[in-house]
Design brief:
This protein is mainly alpha-helical. The protein has 17 helices and 2 strands. The protein has a two-stranded antiparallel sheet with strand order 1-2.
Length: about 375
């Protein structure tokens, strides 16, 4: 069983602890709508992984089986050290390039859209990001790192990054010279000009110091992306940037479109009116809407929000989606293709419905009907099989 899936109860327990801390201190680290969107994107990511993880592992295994240069012994401690360092090095370069090229940013942008910063943001993941990250780990297979070692270390690397998504922990002294910490990663999630595209390390911060992408945390960051998502819909969170790229590519021709997808995200024009204004009482060093090398200045802008209400109904639909995901993760091995497809459709539609309920969308009846059809398909296949 996937270590990430097995860690789900611990994720929710630690989020509960952080939420209690937030309430006790009055810091307001969580907003229901934002957290539901964070978790919704992570749930969609897990649904996609149910159908793709085996193929990705198979790709690594084939590379290791036929192209490895060394037979590294799997039962020696130094091979594990090589794997830990190598996985984080590969992650650094995926992470950095995903911020530098639109073709990879479409897989990673989802993780940065939240304008809050808490442990639920750690679970905010793009639906197809694993399809891109695994390409950066193939050199480890060529080197001779056994697939089972790689899978374990990759999971450990991912789990390590969960705890750095918090504002409840300040500086950590000497450990910050080597390891990625909440302070370092808060910088990474900032969309202020001085913080954009900094601190890409997963476990170790030394890569950023070696390759010139390190930035110390000074004033509190403004979290989010340059162009606000302005939506609580987990499905739209995955579609917004690629659709913007497709619209921007109209009339450019094939070469122009390919160039656009290879360019950095800042190459997409952003109307200053879309950036948002600073809240009352906030003084900006760089005026909102000022063009910088990394994009438009956004320091201090107001966070996106919508009027309250329907949170309870949205939460109920969200819980239905979680139930479907757990059935898929822990019972999927014994299911047929139709049952898996039905459950996957139910989960994705539940996440779509969660956002639709919060935003009071008119298409909700159609989503509910489609979700019921997926549930009937899943149950019919399981009972009939």
């Amino acid at each position: 069983m996937d270590l990430i899936a097995l860690s789900i109860p611990a994720f929710f327990l630690l989020m509960g602890v952080e939420l209690a801390y937030s309430r006790f201190t009055g810091r307001g680290l969580y907003r229901l709508h934002d957290s539901l969107t964070d978790l919704g994107t992570g749930i969609i990511n897990q649904v996609i992984s149910v159908f793709t993880a085996g193929a990705l592992l198979g790709l690594y295994w084939l590379t290791w089986e036929h192209l490895r240069v060394f037979d590294l012994p799997a039962d020696t401690w130094w091979v594990w050290v090589v794997a830990i360092v190598g996985v984080d090095f590969g992650y650094y370069w995926f992470h950095r390039m995903s911020h530098e090229h639109n073709v990879l940013w479409v897989t990673h942008v989802v993780h940065h859209q939240s304008e809050d910063y808490n442990l639920s943001v750690a679970l905010r993941q793009g639906a197809v990001e694993p399809l891109a990250t695994w390409l950066f780990y193939q050199p480890l297979a060529v080197l001779g790192v056994h697939p089972l070692i790689f899978v374990t270390v990759n999971a450990i690397n991912t789990l390590y990054q969960f705890w750095v998504h918090t504002r409840a922990i300040d500086r950590l002294g000497p450990i910050e010279h080597v390891m990625n910490t909440p302070s370092h990663h808060r910088v990474h999630h900032g969309c202020d000009p001085k913080y954009l595209d900094r601190n890409f390390g997963g476990m170790f911060i030394v890569w950023d110091k070696l390759f010139g992408t390190w930035q110390v945390e000074e004033e509190p960051p403004t979290y989010g992306v340059v162009k606000q998502l302005a939506s609580w819909n987990p499905v739209w969170a995955n579609l917004e940037h690629p659709l913007r790229l497709l619209r921007a590519g109209r009339g450019r021709g094939l070469l122009g479109t390919l160039r656009l997808w290879w360019e950095p995200p800042a190459a997409l024009s952003v109307d200053p009116s879309e950036v948002g204004a600073a809240p009352d009482g906030v003084t900006l060093d760089v005026p909102v809407g000022t063009r910088t090398r990394a994009g438009l200045a956004v320091a201090g802008r107001a966070r996106y929000d919508v009027p309250g209400g329907r949170g309870g109904v949205a939460l109920a639909v969200f819980v239905l989606g979680i139930a479907g995901l757990l059935a898929l993760l822990f019972g999927g091995d014994g299911m047929g293709g139709a049952a898996k497809a039905g459950l996957a459709g139910l989960v994705v539609l539940a996440m779509l419905g969660t956002g639709g309920i919060i935003e009071r969308r008119r298409w909700m009846p159609a989503v509910i009907a489609a979700a019921i059809a997926c549930l009937v398909l899943a149950l019919g296949s399981m009972l009939g099989g």
